[in-house]
Amino acid sequence: MSQQPIVAVLGLGAMGHAFAANLLKKDFVVRGWNRTRAKGEDLLGAGLQLSDSAAQAVEGADVVIAMLSDGDTTRQTLAEASIALKQGATVCQMGTIGVEATDALIADLKKARPDVLFIDAPVSGTKAPAENAQILVMASGDQTRAQAAEQVFAAIGKGTQWLGEAGASSRMKLVVNSWLIGLMQSLAESTRLAEQFGFSTEDLWKVLDGGPLAAPYAKMKLGMIASGDFTPQMHLVWALKDAKLALDAAGGSKLPALENIVDVWQQAVDAGYGEQDLAAVYQYLKR
Ligand SMILES: NC(=O)c1ccc[n+]([C@@H]2O[C@H](COP(=O)([O-])OP(=O)(O)OC[C@H]3O[C@@H](n4cnc5c(N)ncnc54)[C@H](OP(=O)(O)O)[C@@H]3O)[C@@H](O)[C@H]2O)c1
């Protein structure tokens, strides 16, 4: 497709809103739907065509992005919209919905709309990278038919990594997030220990800086801890969802640290930290 595809974005939360905004900046025709309509209204001036239903939003769209919270919501929304999909449209599922729901979604669409191309396309990167079109798209599915999707991914991210048959990317996404979740818990605990010994977060970063342990992600999260501002880049409640999805899909793999983190993070969510950034686990440990 030489022309820009028409894109529908289903879900205008932190990530979907950033995708729609970047597509509009790059002159795509963008149709949007969100359960809470108000979240898309600030993009009306930039040209967003905001619909009252997912089915209405996907009408005439060449590429449909689903960026919703979880598997059940995504399956239900796409089931409602599937009848209205354009013949031969491409559906890109970009949320973190895990293995079981992804495989079920592939089967749902194959049955309801065999003409549609499904791309499993979760992303690496949080709200700020999404706003700056700096996310990485992990794509799987039939790349030979995915030119329209690739135009969209190029507008919202810094690159696309193709990983094989549809479903592979949702598996890789759980791998990446289990590492991220372990890193966050370890950083929160190390920071608590540093404080116990009288060191500041700045002391800790100065020792790490310049060496192989100085992950930019750790720097960002140490900054949140130092400032006490846990405005969510990634909600703790969604990170907990991802840890549970990884355990659900782990099969015979033993993941004892992740199991413990799920217990601790569930307690943190129950204690009211779920709507903050996942770095708020530090605050929970500090109570
Ligand atoms: N934020 C990140 O760092 C990040 C990074 C990579 C992947 N992800 C994944 O991407 C997905 C979206 O994340 P986000 O950060 O954009 O989340 P978010 O800001 O909480 O947005 C969630 C979206 O799902 C919608 N939704 C939730 N329940 C619904 C329901 N029952 N019916 C219809 N719509 C519903 C919300 O609509 P309302 O506005 O009406 O609530 C909103 O559009 C999640 O799977 C998340 O794990 C997030």
From TrEMBL:
Pfam family, one: NAD_binding_2
3-hydroxyisobutyrate dehydrogenase-like NAD-binding domain: residues covered: 167-285
Origin superkingdom: Bacteria
Matches recorded under InterPro entries: 6-PGluconate_DH-like_C_sf (IPR008927), 6PGD_dom2 (IPR013328), 6PGDH_NADP-bd (IPR006115), HIBADH-like_NADP-bd (IPR029154), HIBADH-related (IPR015815), HIBADH-related_NP60_sf (IPR051265), NAD(P)-bd_dom_sf (IPR036291)
Alphabetic keyword roster: NAD, Oxidoreductase, Signal
Segments crossing the lipid bilayer: none
Domain 6-phosphogluconate dehydrogenase NADP-binding: residue ranges: 7-164
SUPFAM superfamilies per the UniProt record, alphabetical: 6-phosphogluconate dehydrogenase C-terminal domain-like, NAD(P)-binding Rossmann-fold domains
Endpoints of the signal sequence: 1-20
UniProt xrefs under PANTHER family: CYTOKINE-LIKE NUCLEAR FACTOR N-PAC, OXIDOREDUCTASE GLYR1-RELATED
UniProt-recorded name of the protein: NAD(P)-dependent oxidoreductase
Organism ancestry: Bacteria, Pseudomonadati, Pseudomonadota, Gammaproteobacteria, Enterobacterales
